[in-house]
Each structure stands twice: as C-alpha cells, then as structure tokens.
Amino acid sequence: MAEVSFDYENLTEVEGGLRRDELDKVRPRLREATDGFLEDPPGFMRLPKTGEYAEACARVAEEIRSSGATDFIHVGIGGSALGPMALHKALNHPYYNVLPAEARRGPRLHFAENTDPNTLSAILDVADPQSTWVNVVTKSGSTAETMANFLVIRGWLVDSLGNFGYQGRSIATTDPEEGFLREISSRDDLTVLPIPKDVGGRFSVLTPVGLLPAAVAGLEVEALLTGAARCADEVHEQRAEHPAVTGAAMHYLMDTARGRNIRVMMTYADALERLAAWFVQLWAESLGKDGKGSTPHGAVGTTDQHSQVQLYMEGPQDKVVEIVEVEDHPLDLRLPPAYEDLDGVGYLGGHTMAELLNVELDATRKALTEAGRPNSTIKLGAVNEENLGYLFQALEVQTAIAGSLYGVNAFDQPGVEAGKQITYKRMGRPGY
Ligand code: PA5
Predict the structure, then answer these.
(1) Tens digit of pLDDT for each residue in 158-183?
(2) How far apart are CA 262 and CA 132, in angstroms?
(3) CA–CA separation, 199 and 79 (whole Å)
(4) Domains 4-40+223-416 and 45-221 share a fold
(5) Is 155 exposed, middle or buried (0-12, 13-18, 19+ CB in 10 A)?
(6) Which terminus of the chain is less hemmed in, N or C, by CB atoms within 10 Å?
C-alpha cells in the first residue's frame, strides 16, 4: 500500500503563515475547480488504470532484454525525459551503469536530452553499437534537440550495423497518428509506442514515455500504476479535501496572498533529486503564464543546508520550503564508534547515517518553523515504485488544480514557441 502523506501545518501555524479567513475564502473556488477537474478529467487521470501501455512496454522491454542488449539510449527532452530520469535516479542503483551486467536487471541506461555534443559523444564512447537500442521520444515528432540527438545515434548505428540493424534496434515513442517521427517510423519500419493525444509531455510519465525505460531496467511498472491509481481513487473520493488538492490552494495562497512566490522542493534523499527536477518543470511550465505562477526550485537535504538554507532563513522572505522526507532508508549504515575522547566526533558513534539524515531534516524544519518560515512536508514511507506512482499522480493533480485557481491553462506552453521559431529559422528549416 502506498505510504505518502502531506503535512501543511507549518504553512498555517508559523508566524506570518496563512490565516483561517484566507483559507475559508479560497475554499469555494477550490471546490469549484475540483468539481470541474473531476467532471472532465484530463487524460493523465485515466493512465493508472490503462493497462495497455504497460503491456506494450513489457513486450518491447522483453524483446530488448532477450536480444542481449548492453545499452539503451533514451532520447528526449522536457516532459519526454524528466519523468523517466526521475524514475531511474530514484529506483535504480546510483551507479547502475557501472555495475556488472549480472547485477543489473537490464542494459545500461543513457539519457540523451540536451544538445550538448560532449554528453552525446560520451554516451557513444561507452555504449556498444553492436548491442545498443535507441528509443526516440517526442510527442510532437520534430523537437529539434531530440531529432538532432537521434540523427547522430542513427548514423552511429547505421555505420556499425547497416540500415537493417538500425531499424531492428530503434523504437519511436510518439503521437499515435501524426508528426515527423511517425513518418520516419513508417519509412524505416520502426517499433512504435504511443504517447496518447490527450496527455501532455510533462504529464506523461505513466505513458510509454516513462514506462518503457522503467520496464527495460526491470522496475515494477505494475506497482507504479497501483500507487498512481490509489491516488486517483482517493482524489475522486475526497475531492477538495484530498491533501494534494488542498496543497494547490495552499501554494496558490502562499504566492498570491503572502508574496512567497518561490516554491522550494527540498528532498532529503539523493535518490529524489531528479523527482524535484521533474516537478520543477511540471509546476513551471504549467503555471507560468499571463504574469502568474510561482517559481519552483529544487534542493537536496542535507547537501543544501550547507549551500542554500542560509538564504531560506535570512534572505528575502519570498519562499516556501516543501521538505520531502523518507521514513525508511533500507540500506542504512551504522557509524562505528571511534575517537570517543574527541567531543566533536565521538558522539556520532553508534548512530546511523539515516538517523543523522532525518535528524537534520527535522532540525531544519524546526529551525524554519521557529523563525516563521512557512514550510510543508511530503512524507514517503520509502522510495519505491508504489509511492512514486502515488506522488507523480498527486503532484500532477495539484498542478492542474492550481492552474484553475490561477486562471491559466495548465496544459499548454505558448511561451516556449518564440525561441523555437527563431531556432528553426536560423537552422534553415523550410517555412520559417
Ligand atoms: O511538457 C511539455 O509538453 C514539453 O516539456 C515537452 O515535453 C517538450 O517540449 C518536448 O516535446 P516533445 O515530446 O514534443 O519532443
């Protein structure tokens, strides 16, 4: 059972926190937004109970693994990359790619995201072209960064394996009907996985965008969907009372009524660092419109206690810190007693690393609270598929409902178009 909880007490109880009358005032709008959301739910709400994508991904993943693949390159950017990267970082071994093959549950995983030639060259340095699969992921089918990475990898595969070899080792994850990648996949006879039309990039982690790389690495895709389904069911039952939904109102008010327009997600587990990056895109690209929206920012505890917490405590009072706590760290390490005569070191002996991590979390939360710095906590029982599925779904719901409160369309991104048009023109794309 998914173990995810949300605690907003320190958004209201701190000095300068949200007042009861402010919350009461926004409640009817929150109910209206939730009713509208549930009456005509966005496409991502049906994903947890749509088994067909998981089944298709399991089939393709099996084909990849049984081919003796050593490397799998996921090519995509933005919503076509951040979800799978979050899953990989959270659930696979931190040194996954350098583990011996028998200690992994699948091929090495590489992400070609940016158009930095240094990164792609490095991937091609370590991957074995004789046994590499490439998955090119773009919903629109023509994102310049993704197609550029794909063209280089395609050339590299054709050089080593010939056309036939490239075709047999390439997957296109894209719109079910249209776009240039569709056209390429028909011409080259590539295996195709769909990104459903009604699910936008940053809401697509539970489509083949996230499910295929997860299945290739042997992660428990079913559990991911079970967690997400549980969240969706709870939102249906609890409606505006669901904590993910209430959180939309809390963060909206923190920004619009309190001027705290920076939302820091501080994850106390290295494994969750990319989850924050995924969330930053979700919140930023969905809500930053018409001069509205708050700025999301990722931080890692304890690391950023030695970098950013000074600013959170004593800098401009424009932030809300959302701590992500993990209760159970299964690979805990005991600190061996040593240097007991040295006060500044000896006290650590006998404690554990996880204990120190969570004591520091608690200490930071307490210090923020006592200084009147609003903060909230998302608690995960453990970092596992089910809890992550729940959390992805919850944060997507929260973002969509925050969109209604702000009065913006959470599902478009018109602000990125201008730069794309200039790039196309400068790079000589016909028609620009
Ligand atoms: O959330 C979004 O829609 C965007 O971030 C897209 O995912 C991103 O621009 C990549 O688009 P595409 O999948 O079409 O290549």
Answers:
(1) 999 999 999 999 999 999 999 999 99
(2) 41
(3) 11
(4) yes
(5) exposed
(6) N
- The dihedral through the CA atoms of 96, 81, 214, 71 has a sign that is negative
Domain spanning 4-40+223-416, CATH architecture: 3-Layer(aba) Sandwich (3.40)
Question: According to the CATH classification, is domain 45-221 in 3.40.30.10?
Answer: no
Q: What separation in Å is there between the alpha carbon of 62 and the centre of ligand 1? A: 27
Ligand 1 pocket, Cβ-based, cut-off 6 angstroms: 77-80, 138-140, 143, 146, 200-202, 285, 413
- Domain extent listing, the chain: 4-40+223-416, 45-221
Q: Whose CA is nearest to atom 9 of ligand 1?
A: 78
Q: Please choose from 77, 135, 182, 416 the residue to mutate so as to test ligand 1's pocket, defined by most ligand atoms within 8 A of CB.
A: 77
Q: In Å, what is the CA distance from 259 to each residue of 16, 263, 282, 318?
A: 11, 11, 21, 6
Closest CA to 211 of 67, 83, 92: 83
Predicted structure pTM score: 0.97
